[in-house]
User: Fold this.
Amino acid sequence: MKKEIYLSAVVPAYNEEKTIKETLLDINNFFANQDYNSEIIVVDDGSCDKTVAAAKKLKSIIKNLTVLENKKNCGKGYSVKKGILAANGKFRLFMDADNSTNIEQIKNFIPFLENGYDAAIGNRDLKESEIKKHQPFYKEVLGGIGNVLIKLLAVPGIEDTQCGFKCFSEKFAEDIFPKLTINRWGFDIEILALANRFGYKIKSVPIIWENKEDGNVRLKDYILTLADLFKIKINLIKKKYDEK
Assistant:
């Protein structure tokens, strides 16, 4: 009989050859000390380096590891959606491959999900959060401007929509993720906008976060994310999501 999975950790990855091993071993070590069944799903987004090989090499050590591959680069949103829908967990987390938020912090998220919340999301802007290393100043300024627009147009009440550490109930994942249309950076906004649209309960959770210098977010990605925001707003106005 197949064991029921309590927690799935989905790790989208693009050109993370240098970091993926450490992150996966860190997740595995954490899961090894828990009293529940778990799984790790890596979704490689058409990497140009040896990310896939580095991840697959660990399958002899990490027995609950699955490595999925996009044959071409499709975007973080596409990869997260693919991983979350392939997962089997009662709760389904996605986290960044650079380990900017350590898996240990899921302990602070699970109680909210066990007590009626449908989504628990990391929020770097809460006063209880700790930022070990900040992003470059220009990124923080652009992010702040973007957050204002996001709250006005799509997700009121949430200060940080873009943190890459979010966990969902199985029902939320199965209901919301098939409706997603944004394949790249704006997908976080779409998830939370749809959570609001369909009445799901979201809990913002303080985290410890560290900016990684080799991150894949570029200046133009901020502009593309804002373009995605307007697409989401138009879809909400036209009630496109209600049709799915």
Remarks:
- The CA atoms of residues 42 and 67 lie 5 Å apart.
